[in-house]
Specification:
The protein is α/β, with parallel strands linked by helices. It contains 18 helices and 18 strands.
Length: 489
């Protein structure tokens, strides 16, 4: 032990003696070798030179850049996908899509963009069920799991070893005994509190489990950024789930710190189930070093698709040159003519999103933004409150949700189209995390989402210009400091 302490002391002394040189090297890397946005560069330089040793450690854990690193391979299905993409391109350029579906007239360019950027095929045979309550969502999920015949694919950012997952686990083990394949993909950082022995026991009982970006040296996570934030379940390629709920007792309102947990999750049946299946398989193949695309039975449509909702499944991540979900938000906001509804736990927009929202307000578009009244991450919350303040002073209707914690992640435009899923309205979701959203082009479904937003207003308090202007000095300083660091949050 004494030798280890001496070695640690020697390392610390070395770092202290050479800290100026080390900071200089990292500064060169940040400025010249990583294509970061200027605000992010300045934020990192501020951290490195303000708190040299701490900043150095923070950079090692959170500052490495993996943008544009190709991680996911589609080659087994590229021919089929490219054929479908070319067919829909032809439908758009020749106005066939608009002739068949006049309600898509204002959004064909966005559909075209999603085709090119993420290979997101538009389908119109889907049905969508919206869950806003954790108990109801997990009751439905468990019932669908009980009805599984072939496979159950589960992917969550956070899985906690508590009463909720124990309930799900028992059903999964029963299905394994019936011969159903069960796969669980979890994020190493989000699910870090679950002991490895817990996963190993489940593996012994027949559940296939893989960790995305596992920790090194026990629980040491060198990637605080670039986490897999997706929440996907696909069952028999017949039904799929995507949205904001993770697996933990707080998501069903059993954590006193948060109280009631207000979130949104979609249960989907139709062709877009296959799109979520492809997304799961891509992530699984990368983490497990397998190739599930070789088994065609995982992608055969199951059930009668009798829905009529048109939608696309879009995904984004740091491995892509384009910020696909952010670009969808940007394009949708730019298209708004009447109204914009945003619900998000973290509102830290980049400059483009902020500016297009300000332009929308000045153009007479009604902009409504709802955030939580309490923080789960204090730094992020106070940066959020600062940006919401900009919206309030510009003329947006902004609200804090006071009936527990708001974790909803969604955007509704003109009561006609919405995008809901796992992505927050913040730089982290835009640039650093792996996310997935459903874009739904259906006025009836969009109006249902608007009504849900309005129902939530019963539990909200409006942030007026007067209320925001009267915040005290401590809050103002806190906001400005957190906003300064917002490119890193």
């Amino acid at each position: 032990m004494e030798a280890i302490l001496q070695d640690a002391l020697m390392v610390l002394q070395f770092l202290l003696r050479h800290m100026v040189f080390i900071n200089f090297i990292f500064s060169i890397i940040i400025v010249f070798f990583q294509r970061r946005e200027p605000k992010s560069v300045w934020a990192w330089l501020l951290i490195l030179y303000s708190v040299p040793i701490v900043g150095f450690i923070i950079y090692l854990f959170a500052g490495t850049d993996m943008h544009k690193r190709k991680m996911f391979r589609l080659k087994e299905i590229e021919d089929h996908l490219n054929e479908a993409i070319r067919h829909q391109e032809h439908q758009i350029t020749n106005q066939e899509m608009v002739e068949e579906n006049p309600e898509l007239k204002d959004y064909t360019d966005l559909i075209y963009y999603n085709l090119h950027s993420t290979g997101a095929i538009l389908s119109g045979d889907n049905s969508v069920q919206v869950f806003t309550d954790g108990d109801k969502k997990f009751d439905a999920l468990i019932e669908d799991i009980k009805n599984a015949k072939q496979f159950i694919h589960i992917q969550y950012y956070i899985i906690k070893n508590d009463v909720l997952f124990n309930r799900i686990r028992e059903v999964l083990l029963e299905k394994v005994r019936e011969g159903v394949e069960v796969r669980i993909l979890y994020d190493g950082m989000g699910s870090r509190c679950v002991p490895e022995r817990y996963w190993n026991k489940m593996r012994e009982e027949g559940i296939q489990i893989v960790e995305f970006f596992p920790a090194l040296l026990g629980r040491l996570h060198l990637r605080i950024n670039y986490r897999n934030h997706r929440k996907i379940v696909v069952i028999d390629n017949a039904v799929a789930y995507v949205g904001g709920f993770n697996i933990g007792k707080e998501y069903i309102g059993l954590d006193q710190k948060f109280g009631y947990w207000r979130d949104t999750h979609l249960r989907i049946q139709g062709s877009e189930v296959s799109a979520l299946q492809v997304r799961f398989v891509l992530d699984w193949n990368y983490a497990a070093r397998e190739n599930l695309f070789r088994n065609e039975s995982y992608f055969l449509p199951q059930g009668d698709f009798t829905g009529s909702t048109m939608m696309q499944i879009i995904s984004s991540g740091p491995d892509s040159a384009l910020q696909n979900i952010r670009n969808n938000y940007l394009r949708l906001i730019n298209k708004a003519r009447k109204s914009i509804y945003i619900q998000t736990p973290y509102f830290i927009p980049d400059e483009s999103i902020l500016n297009v929202l300000i332009i929308a307000i000045h153009s007479g578009v009604e902009v409504n933004i709802m955030i939580p009244c309490k923080p789960d991450h204090p730094f992020v919350y106070w940066a959020t409150y600062s940006y919401v303040g900009d919206m309030v002073m510009t003329g947006a209707n902004c609200y804090t949700y006071n009936n527990g914690f708001l974790h909803v992640k969604g955007l509704i435009i003109d009561d006609a189209v919405y995008s809901y899923g796992t992505a927050n309205m913040d730089i982290r979701s835009f640039q650093l995390n792996f996310e997935v959203n459903a874009v739904v082009y259906d006025k009836t479904e969009a109006q249902k989402m608007v009504q849900i937003f309005r129902d939530d207003l019963k539990y909200c308090k409006k942030i007026t210009k007067d209320r925001y202007s009267r915040r005290n000095l401590i809050v103002r300083v806190r906001e400005q400091f957190c906003r300064l660091l917002s490119p890193l949050l």
